[in-house]
Amino acid sequence: MTRLTETARGVYVIAATPFTDSGEIDFDSCDRMVDFYLDAGATGLTVLGIMGEAPKLTTDESSTIVARILKRVNGRVPVVVGASAPGFAQMQDLTRRVMDAGAAGVMVAPPGSLRTDDQIVTYYTQVAEFLGDTPFVVQDFPLTTGVQMAVPALARIFNSLPTAVCLKHEDWPGLAKITALRKDGTLNRRISILCGNGGVFLPEEMERGADGAMTGFAYPEMMVSVVEHHAKGDMERARDLFDAYLPLARMEQQPGAGLAIRKYIMFRRGIIASPAQRKPGANLDALSRAEIDTLMARLDRRLKELA
Question: Which keywords annotate this record (predicted)?
Fold first, then answer.
């Protein structure tokens, strides 16, 4: 079993959870989705993230879908599992289940009740104690969690907890945070920094010192291309490709509608059989679907020009 380490880089796609129109888990679409992500060049997958509708799943369903994805991946890339929970007992139980099944590590977001640096550091210290030797990702997503994780707090976490190996950087604006974390003397080791927010700042994040992306844009091949061209030193090509996808990445970032848009695009691309979310969930009206169809058609034309 490959374990997550500080060397994680590339694109860890946040996997959606496919449902049927009636709200059941669609395992056939799940298999097809995994194949698509790997064919697109994903270097890892992240399951049961915020955009994976994890709170709408039972504990048994969560374990079952992780097992299905791990079986389909078959060790080709590391799989990280979102393990955030209201209490440590639930977090510990899910972590044990998924690590026994072959996961590479887990991701933990802070509860919204945390306000001070000391509270944040204490929380993650307890996370590390409960998870034992399991490597974990610290999810920094204040737009959703409401928790502001300043650089000094993050430094205390990573400098004192060896099993905290990766930061999912999803602050907005947050480019200066990447620079501060990469500054000599801030951290006592180099950690992995993978970025979110649908990839809308990925070129700048890579230039600031990020190692890649951990997010769920419906065109993961864009993120793979940006990361690969950055590694080659060809940011002009990376930005040209990024710019072509930006209208759709921007469309996906709409609060409240983003997941519906992402699932609709995945449905239109033949990745999942239905764009349905498990209730409660937003639905797109006909005009919104038509707007997305237009952007997808424009993207196809632009990619042919760039080729």
Answer: Lyase
Query: What percent helix, strand, coil does the chain show, rounded to 5?
Result: 50, 10, 35
Whether residue 24 lies inside any domain: the answer is: yes
In angstroms, the CA 300 to CA 307 distance is 11
| One-letter identity of residue 223 | M
Residue 149 structure tokens: 């994780």
pLDDT tens digits along 138-190: 999 999 999 999 999 999 999 999 999 999 999 998 999 999 999 999 999 99
Q: With respect to residue 163, please indicate whether it lies within any of the assigned structural domains.
A: yes
Kindly give the interhelix angle for 220-232 and 235-252, rounded to the nearest 10 degrees. 160
CATH of the domain at 66: 3.20.20.70
Q: Which two tokens stand for residue 202?
A: 């990925």
Q: Would you place residue 59 in the very low, low, confident or very high pLDDT band (cuts 50, 70, 90)?
A: confident
Residue 123's domain comprises 10-232
Residue 76 lies in a domain: yes
Q: How far is 67 from 304, CA to CA, in rounded Å?
A: 38
Look up residue 25 and give its DSSP letter.
Answer: B
Other C-beta atoms lying within 10 Å of the C-beta of residue 21: 10
| 27-to-12, 37, 50, 68, 267 alpha-carbon distances in Å | 21, 15, 19, 8, 15
Tell whether residue 214 is among the known ligand binding residues. yes
Sign, CA dihedral 105-129-87-158, equals: negative
